């Protein structure tokens, strides 16, 4: 069974599948069919280069791109300027203004970033779990007033039923997505 044949939980263009996430995406299709809801997998495997592109995209969205030419021009996630990665301060600034995003590579957060009452400035934040190919995101339906509410109902049922390989779901309301963690089965 291939996820490309799904009728209700479909793949957005460019989503990279792995042997861990594909069977779960296939198994979830029937839950969305039963709910008569069409939804999209918006992200699968994402390496450090992909994550750097996403950091740059958010810098633009937040109007921070002009302040960080070094990050915007960074061509490889491992490039450093002195002690830090070329994107590191810019990425830290994203956390500082409330964009919760993993760094392309594990890195120390250089600005105030308070989460769950604790300032993470000076602590190392891990690379995106998407880099390991064991998770994927389901996005909210298209449209200006889109939310993940309907998708969450379906995914909570799937979790309750114990869909093989699916171990956790995490609503990310800011990104209008549900992050889904999987394990090899
Ligand atoms: Zn995710």
Question: Could you please describe the fold and organization of this structure?
Answer:
This protein has 185 residues and is of the alpha+beta class. The chain folds into 2 domains: 96 residues, Threonyl-tRNA Synthetase, Chain A, domain 2 (2-Layer Sandwich), CATH 3.30.980; 80 residues, no CATH class. 29% of the residues lie in helices and 21% in strands. The strands form 4 sheets. A 5-stranded mixed beta sheet has the order 1-2-9-11-10. It has a two-stranded antiparallel ribbon with strand order 3-4. The chain has a two-stranded antiparallel sheet with strand order 5-8. The longest helix is centred in the N-terminal third of the chain and has 14 residues. The protein is elongated. The mean pLDDT is 94. The protein binds zinc ion. Zinc ion binds next to strand 9.
Keywords for this structure?
alpha+beta, 21% strand, 2 domains, elongated, Threonyl-tRNA Synthetase, Chain A, domain 2, 185 residues, binds zinc ion, two-stranded antiparallel sheet, 5 helices, five-stranded mixed sheet
Structural class, judged by helices and strands?
A: alpha+beta
Biggest sheet strand order reads 1-2-9-11-10
In percent, how helical is the residue content? 25-40%
The pLDDT mean sits at 94
- The CATH level-2 architecture of the largest domain is identified as 2-Layer Sandwich
CATH class identity of the largest domain = Alpha Beta
CATH topology of the largest domain: Threonyl-tRNA Synthetase, Chain A, domain 2
Distance between the first and last residues' Cα:
15 Å
Give the number of helices: 5
**Strand elements, count:** 11
Bound molecules: zinc ion
User: What kind of sheet is the major sheet?
Assistant: 5 strands, mixed
* Radius of gyration (Å): 17 Å
Shape: elongated
* Beta-strand percent range: 15-25%
The tally of structural domains comes to 2
Low-pLDDT sequence parts = none
* H and E order: EHEHHEEHEEEEEHEE
